[in-house]
Amino acid sequence: MNCWTGTSVRLRAIVAEDWHQFHKNDQDTDSARTSDAIYFPRSEAGTRQWTEETAAKGATGDSMMLAIEKLDGELVGCINAHSCDSRNGIFKYGVAIFRDHWRMGYASDAINLLLRYFFKELRYEKAVAIVYGFNESSIRLQERLGFTLEGRLRSMIFTLGKRHDELVFGLLKSEFEAERMSTS
Fold it and tell me: Does residue 4 sit within a domain?
C-alpha cells in the first residue's frame, strides 16, 4: 500500500508532460474563478515553462503542489499545501479539479490523502481551507469532510463585478481521526 494512493486517486509529483492538461484547464474561466483567480491568457510555451518549473521545484519545506490522477493515470487536477507553520502545527491547502471530473469524489479522496499525510506523518494539528463565499460546491465539500466554518472575511474577493466574502474553514487532527473512526 502506498500512502499517496486513495480509493479513486493517487497524488504524485507534477511532471513536465502535464503541461497540456494544465493549459486546457487554463481556458476554463469559471473553474479558475472558483479555485484562485482569472489571469491573463498564458501561451502554450508559458504553460510548459510553468509546468517544468513546478516539476523541478518540488517541495519547499512542507509546502508542495501535487498532481491528482485517477488510478488509471489520467490527470484530473492538483492539490497544494501552503502556509505551512510546523512550529504551530497549522497548514493551509487548496485543491482544483478539472471541470470534466467535478463531482466524482476525486477532491475528497485527494484531500483525505493530504490530511492523513500531514496529520499522521508530519505531526500537524490543524488544516485550514479558504473558500470563496460564492463557491457553494467547495463550501459543501469542506462541511462533508468535517471542517468547521471558523470565520468570514467580508468583501475580500472581487469577481463578476461583485465583492464576495472569504470563508475560513478549519479541521483539527482529533476531528479528522474521530470522523475517520466513525466511518470505518
Answer: no
